[in-house]
Amino acid sequence: MHQQRSNRRDFIKMASLFTAGLTALQFPVWANSVFALEYPLHNIPENKGIDPKWARSLYTRGEETAYFKSKNEFKYIGMPVGGLHAGTVYVGGDGRLWLWQIYNETFEGAQEGIEPKTVNWNDGTEVRKIRARDGSAYIEPAIANNKRILEQGFAVKAVVNGKTFIKELSEAHWDEIVFKPAYPIATIQYSSRDFPLEVQLKVYSPFIPLDAENSALPSTILRLEIKNTTNSHISVSVLGWMENGANKLTGKINTGRRRNEVSKAENSKSIFSSFEAATDELKNAQDSGTMCFTLHNAKSKTYASLDPWPVADKHFNTAVTTSAYADAPEKLVGGIEVTEALSPGKSVKADYSISWHFNNANVQLQKIVKNAEQGFHYAVRFKDAGAVSSYLQSNFEKLTKNTELWVKTWNDATLPHWFLERTFINIDTLATANTYRFADGRFWSWEGVGACAGTCTHVWQYAHAVARIFPELERDLRHRVDLGIGFKEDSGAIIFRAENESRPAIDGQAGTVLRFYREHQMSTDVTFLQANWPKIKKAIQFMLDQDKNGDGMTDTPMENTLDAVWQGEIAWIVGLCIAAARAGQAMAEEMNDTSFAQTCQTYVANGRKNMEQELFNGEYFIHRPDKVQGRKELGSYNTCHIDQVYGQSWAFQVGLPRVLSQDKAIAALKALWKYNFTTDVGPYIKTHIGGRPYALPGEGGMVMNTNPHNELKPFGENVSWQLGYFHECMSGFEHQVAAHLMAEGMVEESLILTRSIHDRYHAAKRNPFNEIECSDHYARAMASYGTFINACGFEYHGPKGYIKFSPAWNPEYFKAPFTSANGWGSYTQKKNGAKQLHSINLKYGDLQLQELAFSKIGSGAVKSVSVMLGVQNIPVQLNQKGAELRITANKKINIKTNESLNITFS
């Protein structure tokens, strides 16, 4: 989970969790019982008290999420709207941009988090100091109005019947503002009784699944549309402004001057912002670079410099200037204005963009990742912010069309709006200062913004979103890092933080084996697997070798994501290794490596049998202590641990056969629901102290590890600082469980758990776009995409041309988006009398299929199938096994953009 144990110990010391051990703690009388001195009583109620009507509402489509000025919901909103790996730029609820964490200052121990700060938190027994990496932004979220680093905004002027009306696009100027957060596009609507126009603003950076290059532009697009809703003719002017942000942090007195220059292209006008530095040191500063503010319309007025605010009518009539200077630290703000006469019912559109280019990586980052020395990937493509803007202009229609097409495709579904939002939203991590792509193309990440280096395997293996949306990033990470920089040729070990560590982690190793299989599946052919198979095989063998006694249950003490080296046979690690071995078998079979496939198969068979016999206590899976060490060291032992059947959860993500029996897996999930999930964590965290605040009193969640049978010393004789983790609600782990619940048919529990997370991040309480664990925008939270995959019953194998859909609910009419190796689109299935209709509509790219699987809807026998690609009939064979309907074509079917494959079962 985290990198430096000393930092974690510091946290626990501050939490006053341990003095001479847990026996030193005194607990109060509760519920007429006295707590054991060693550990407090389990106090999560079995009856969750959930309103059945509310639970039923979670299944329904509902309304798209909207946040309102009138409900005071804008304080914390910050949607990332910059390109991938280009720093963090937030758009707030009223459409103004804030934060501007684009200056490469984020670093562990200094500039962690969205807002590096320590806050006070009363945990129910004492007031504790909480740092950014421990969840300070959960207690006190960053406030937009406190982090408006650069002057930026818009004003709209209307002249009607001789009267002039001016409003800025900011919260104070409007009766109502509505913010709709369909990531990656924020749509903001403005209305007032005293203003004769309807105003809408769309804010985003180009975001096109399967196109990592065009989704990683250091830029933000702002698309204004203003409609005349009166019966009068109106002269409408839009003024946009942007501060010169070059050397914003280092530009002190006598260090140089800021410069704005206007440039014109065929269909655009721009203000190019730079800094004329007095010293070489300033030229090499982290915030040394350029910005560009552009209107993608040549019919405009440009102002290289504007007077201070507030905006008044004079700003729309100031003198046009083409260049301006300001000595640092004075601000220099430029503006671009467009004017148009609007007839009744007509609209004017104004497309602006802001681009930036700051290519000097943090010096501290360069010390731990040598790739950072050459700067960032976007700077290889673009020499400065003006070049970024020119690229946007040349490709504006394609970039905006495909981004908006994806958002439409994603949201054109029968799944609930809130569910689509929460399961997708965490991919915004890629558009924050948590991730980097260096000049040589290498992808690198913290765990959370500025905390815990090295694209950690045992964290990122939970994160399913990137591999499905930008698979090329994950394939490169597997090849370049896991089988390159972080690979030990002699043993096959994968160092879990590459050059930032020296050890493998057993869960990271197993999870990465599963990721090798997933990345193969998300490829168009076998090239990835073939090229990497020798090393992948070594990595699998290393994992198998950690089973010392040959029973298929790994038992070698090794680092794991809970930052400890646990002794014995641990259900969640054993099961994860079994799932990874099964993925190894599948890959070996595809490589015709029959001997190694048999080795993996034997491991899986032994492991499954022994895990189910030895580690299942009749209710849930446990941690069997080491025969020599016993329960001396920290472990989960007979307690109920959140990841206990994680291996089976992973298996569903890549379409593997079951690695655990269904009855025992479901029993374990039911135990987690019974013992670990609560609609109010308050009573639990008040008595089980030491955890970090990722869920607060009054909020629901699933606790990491509980002691339902009130054992004495449940987590070992000599517990260590990591015990604090057991008392927390970490959303990445919760999403993993929600995904598994969905796959096993426990749909309602899955929805309730996911909704609990969603409600914890409601805009009235904190930023909906920032799920927090160890610092902000935590990578593990991208596990949420796995819940979406299982809701669709989606499986895919690109090289085989295989796809499957089996919706978890509403099979009679279901519609959802999907992505594949080289294309994405929309899938629909319907029941129509005695027939069932399935349609794959490709919106982007191409898709090759040869084998397709669906589930039978309702009763009645299926006797025939028809497959049509447009007007072309495709011959197929039908094979029905139970409720599964599988069809196979004689050769691959090539579906192109805007084509549909229609399947009819009769």
Automatic annotation (TrEMBL):
GO molecular function per UniProt: hydrolase activity, hydrolyzing O-glycosyl compounds
Chain ranges of the Glycosyl-hydrolase family 116 N-terminal domain: 78-398
Coiled coil feature spans: none
GO biological process, one term: carbohydrate metabolic process
All residue ranges annotated as the Glycosyl-hydrolase family 116 catalytic region domain in the record: 507-785
Stored Gene3D superfamilies: 1.50.10.10
Protein name: Beta-glucocerebrosidase 2-like protein
